Amino acid sequence: MSKTIIISILAVMLMVPAANAATISGWTHPDYVRADLTTTYSADDSSLLLTVKNTSPANSATLRGLLFSAPNVKLNLRKVSYYSRSISKPVKMTKHWKLDDAAGANLNAEPMKYYDGLNTALYTGKKFQGGNPKKGLKVGWTATFLFDVDGEMEAPLNQFIARFQSINYKGMTASDSDYAHSVPTPIPGALWLFSIGLAGITYLRRKTAQ
Fold first, then answer.
1. Based on the number of CB atoms within 10 Å of its own CB, is 177 exposed (0-12), middle (13-18) or buried (19 or more)?
2. What is the mean pLDDT of the chain?
3. Residue 152 to residues 77, 142, 189: CA-CA distances in angstroms?
4. Which of 20, 49, 106, 171 is most buried, taking the most CB atoms under 10 A from its CB?
5. DSSP-assigned states of every residue in the chain
6. What is the pTM for the complete model shown?
7. 53: CB partners within 8 A, 6+ apart
8. How far is the C-alpha of 44 from the C-alpha of 56, rounded, in Å?
9. What confidence tens digit (pLDDT) does each residue in 71-115 have?
10. How far apart are CA 172 and CA 126, in angstroms?
11. pLDDT at 56 over 50
12. Which of 6-10, 75-79, 198-202, 205-209 is predicted most confidently?
């Protein structure tokens, strides 16, 4: 009986998709440009969910481009939705976003292909370089990007670089643009289940010893 319970707990733990998180901050405006990112990969249906929340302290800062590494897989963008605390139903924004190879994207005048590992560009407007800042993720809003994954992901998305435009805050004389980078911080999606599993195993051992 106890072995069956333990096996069931471990099976549930293994089915939980692994999550990974990172926070990005601006290069030129590090105190005013920021976003939180979380990725969740599901091997069961070969899908990847990227959640991006624009947490910039600035009065305005529109995130309209992301460069990142998607190791050993090809991504196909299925759906993009925006939401905030003030709306009850997410707004579908898929048509505004495009997915491309990072080799064709530029960081100012420098091709992104020279940055090791970056192979994917996600953007609105005209590539990663420019575009309309109105078509992007505004301060306080969250976007969810759902991808179909061609291949098997053995590592999470990493090395994020973001493109922000229409940045404005108190003390600025005019709006500006900026880039942001991140260092991924692993967050096991099954951590809480792992804790429950350990507690259950401990309980069963004590009960067996009695």
1. buried
2. 77
3. 16, 27, 18
4. 20
5. -HHHHHHHHHHHHHHSPEEEEEEEEESS-TTT-EEEEEEEEETTTTEEEEEEEE---SSEEEEEEEEEE-TT-EEEEEEEEEE-TT-SSPEE-GGG-EEEEGGG-EETTEEGGGSTT--EEEESSSTTT---TTSSB-TT-EEEEEEEEES--SS--EEEEEEEEEEE-TT-SS-EEEEEEE--EEE-TTHHHHHHHHHHHHHHHHHHH-
6. 0.75
7. 35, 36, 37, 141, 142, 143
8. 34
9. 888 999 999 999 998 888 899 999 899 998 887 776 655 555 556
10. 26
11. yes
12. 75-79
101 with 113: CB under 8 angstroms?
no
Picking from 86, 62, 88, the residue whose alpha carbon sits closest to that of residue 167 is 62
Distance of CA 107 to the CA centre of its chain: 20
